[in-house]
Amino acid sequence: MSRYVFLNSEAQDVKVLAAVQKAARSRGATVVESVAGTMLLELAPAQVPWVGQALPGWRYSVERKTTTV
């Protein structure tokens, strides 16, 4: 399983975010964390395009862990 960040700057409403989380879970994704307009999902790489299709308007990328010193 890998982690992917899904972004949508227009999804600021709590109800919209709840609906999107439900759609992602129905496609097999695990919602690790979410805030307005951003979700961190854990899923298999092969599932990413399928989940992306269920979330129109959302962009995604692989989670990148960075450290600032």
Overview of the molecule:
A hairpin with a 2-residue loop joins strand 2 (30-35) and strand 3. A 4-stranded antiparallel beta sheet has the order 2-3-1-4, with helices on one face. The model has no long low-confidence stretch (mean pLDDT 90). The radius of gyration is 12 Å and the shape is globular. It has 69 residues and is of the alpha+beta class. It has 2 helices and 4 strands, in the order βαββαβ. 14% of the residues are buried. 29% of the residues lie in helices and 32% in strands. The protein has helices spanning 14-26, 48-54, and strands at 2-7, 30-35, 38-43, 59-62.
Quick structural gist:
With 69 residues, the protein is an alpha+beta fold. The protein has helices spanning 14-26, 48-54; strands spanning 2-7, 30-35, 38-43, 59-62.
For the largest sheet, list the strands in their spatial order.
2-3-1-4
Reported for the largest beta sheet, the result is: 4 strands, antiparallel
Number of strands: 4
Mean pLDDT: 90
Q: What key phrases describe this protein's structure?
A:
four-stranded antiparallel β-sheet, 2 helices, 69 residues
Topology:
Blueprint: E1 2-7, H1 14-26, E2 30-35, E3 38-43, H2 48-54, E4 59-62
Antiparallel strand pairs: 1-3, 1-4, 2-3
